[in-house]
Amino acid sequence: MTDASTTAARRPGEQALTALGLSAPDPDPADASPHSFPGGGRWRTEIPSCEGPEALAVVLKEASRLDVPIHRISQGSGVWMLSDAEITEMVEATAERDIELCLFTGPRGTWDIGGSTRTDSRGAGLRARGHDAVAGCVEDAVRATELGVKCLLVADEGVLWTLHRARAAGIIPADTTLKVSALIGPVNPAAYAVYERLGGDSINVPSDLTLDHLTEIRRVSGAPMDMYIEAPDDLGGYVRMYEVAELIRRGAPLYLKFGLSKAPGIYPYGHHMRELTLATAKERVRRGRLALDLLARHGADGDMAPLGSRLPGDLQRFEISS
């Protein structure tokens, strides 16, 4: 990768536009995030929606073929949609390559019997409805971590705080990381800071946030941020490849998530969706290669965090009362 310290990054189309008298103002250094990942680097990569061992094998093979570095692979259907043998296979395959595996926890509102998520207001959203839904998420968390999973995806504030307390109490391992889902991602700096304090180690923001929004968030929190560079259609279908360098500059430490627009939803996954799931898993890796190639062409591909790094560093938390 290009050494960013010796090669000045350029913005897309900069030379041609300058020659035509259409140059943009110079970036304001005050907009840049002052934060990095612990151990160095300002960005990591993530391949989302990897729904089982077979899809994982496709992702790993394609990543090797296209030379796409991967820090994290995540799944969206949930721990409860995988057998112990499938989870173990995924844990072993990712551990062999020093990649973090993140599995989604438990029931969520859109699959529950409640009708509010199907109203025009989409009330209650993805949150865990009632005690039993929280219990299901905790059950998933305990089961997954006992099988070696080190990262859990969460879509409810109460579940996040409960799992944060659980790792503080030793119920799940202390080095378990908790990732806040894009399905409930915060859209302002105050909310972002709350998710960090509730236990979020990696917080997904919606892909429609502006660059100024990212700068605002970075003025109050250094917690790692996740962002779809290409978002699934049910999250807006946004494609922001040409902005990747500026997203890193404003949002670091940032996970670049390589999603896929113009593709049907696959949650909850089952074998009836096998061909689609494998095809989209492969294409997500290719999308990652395209984004990384853009960074390289613009001389902005330096400062990637070391492969194998996964911890978020020291973060701000609410006090846990006894």
Describe this structure in words.
The chain contains 9 helices and 8 strands. It has helices at residues 14-19, 53-66, 84-96, 130-146, 157-168, 189-197, 211-218, 244-251, 274-297, and strands spanning 43-47, 72-74, 100-104, 151-154, 177-180, 202-204, 225-230, 254-258. Helix 7 (211-218) links the parallel strand 6 (202-204) and strand 7 (225-230). It is globular, with a radius of gyration of 19 Å. Helix 4 crosses helix 5 (157-168). The protein starts with 13 loop residues before the first helix and ends in a 25-residue tail after the last helix. 34% of the residues lie in helices and 11% in strands. With 322 residues, the chain is of the alpha/beta class. Residues 1-7 have low confidence and may be disordered. An 8-stranded parallel barrel has the order 1-2-3-4-5-6-7-8, surrounded by 6 helices.
Question: What is shown here, in short?
Answer:
This protein is of the alpha/beta class.
